[in-house]
Amino acid sequence: MKNFDYDVIVVGAGPAGSTAARYAAAGGAKVLMLEKDRDVGYPVRCGEAVSHEGVAQFIKPDPKWIASSVSKFRLIAPNGSSVLPKLDGGGYVLERRIFDYELAKLAANEGVEVITKAYVYDLLREDGKIVGVKTLIKDQKVDIRSKIVVAADGVESRVGKWAGMDTTCHIRDMESCAQMTLSGIEVDPDVLDFYFGDEVSPGGYLWVFPKGKDTANVGLGLSVEEAKKKSAIKFLHEFVDRKFPKAAMLTHIAGGVPCAKTNPEIVKENVILVGDAAHQVNPVSGGGIISGMIGGMIGGQVAAEAIINGEISHLREYSKRWHKRLGWRHDIFYNIRNAIGNFDDKTYNNICDSALKLPEDKRTLGGIFRAALWNQPSMILDVARVFLS
Fold first, then answer.
1. Distance from C-alpha of 19 to C-alpha of 291, rounded to nearest angstrom
2. Per-residue pLDDT averaged across 318-330, rounded?
3. Backbone torsions φ then ψ of 5, nearest 5 degrees
4. What is the reported pLDDT for 363?
5. Of 121, 45, 169, 112, which Cα lies nearest the Cα of 296?
6. Alpha-carbon distance values, 364 to 47, 73, 358 (Å)
7. Which residue has the higher pLDDT, 92 or 386?
8. Do 120 and 135 contact (CB within 8 A), yes or no?
9. Per the omega criterion (within 30 degrees of 0), is the bond before 63 cis?
10. H or E segment at 180?
């Protein structure tokens, strides 16, 4: 560490944090990024699927961090019937360890200083104002000053709480998730599989995301209320025992994902929240890589502008730009999630049957959502706004 004074400190080196740091530095700010774990990109707590369009706006796709290129997704109903719509634009299943590492390198190339095994345990204050962070680096307490702090420290951000923001995610908006990476199995390497129904994941879905021909991330998410009756891990083990009885388990993770609207407050004085810390996860899919990077990009850009202009109050612009770019969609996705979260097995079977009756060129994600919500006219309008805008 060259000095103890920065324009911006980013806490957390996940995709949102690295992107925020990168764009803040590119805009002219002196930036430090702190990561509590030993290595950037580890441990991986993610299904790792992204769209080509989403990721390509930030980094050129590279085979070294792409486990599979996918062109289709398959929706599997409780009765076993399935529909295979085309995935618009295609997508990838990542190797997050390598992907996150490359994002951090992009930030470093813009001049960002990066320190791992740096545990932030509080905010630094002088005269009641936040002037940096308190950290443990190599077991030594170090106070580091900055004009702006970016919290990219995950769900229910501690940094945000210390700044006075309520980052708690209500239990009704939390998904209990579990995932294994399995090897020695047969999967379609270019298809993302989604299973629905009470047997596999009541109120949520189960995914099989290929990482080559014989390996896949297999996971599921369900509401915390459902998880109280039967855990996500138990649902997952039962599915794997049925579907992939001879699989070798390479990894096993579990945790919570916020499927909520954007946190009501993502800016307070000189602290901003990005990524999971800001609840910028897509409430329907539970995917947060690209939306978190978009939040990080906007946050980093606004932070740099605030530094260059000498107006910290300019950070309020971040909330406005986020809502205009993605926040409004997430509000709609949240309503859609609540609508489809109550579907029973019969409804999922009927949706699949309706989708199969559509001409192949009409079997799009938007078309399927419209079929799913045909008896909720207000939702149809919301779906149209999302998929036609």
1. 11
2. 95
3. -130, 125
4. 76
5. 112
6. 22, 10, 10
7. 92
8. yes
9. no
10. strand 174-183
